[in-house]
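Show me a record, fold above all:
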Amino acid sequence: MQLLWCWRCKADMPMLDEQEYAEIACLHRNGIESVKDYRKRTGAPLENVSMQDHYATMLARYEEITGYKETNPNAIVITDSHCTALPAQPAVNPCGHQGPSSAAVACRHDSE
């Protein structure tokens, strides 16, 4: 784990390495299955499901790794895993911020 600039949050945030991300992603999938199973058994609508209960293991592990207490499991695992998982060599964007991925060609920080 490393603290790197997050263009979405506009702050330094914990960024997981590939091994850490794989572990968290697995726990996230377990949370998804738990929610699906709960809804199938109870018929509860998604808005009535406690995400903290179904993703408790993932959220606790993330806090162990990063020291950062996150309450939204989806904020941790985002669509593009390369935005969360660090490559061996993080890119430095033209604005000077380290990017989360060497695939970051265009600088997302131009609006700052």
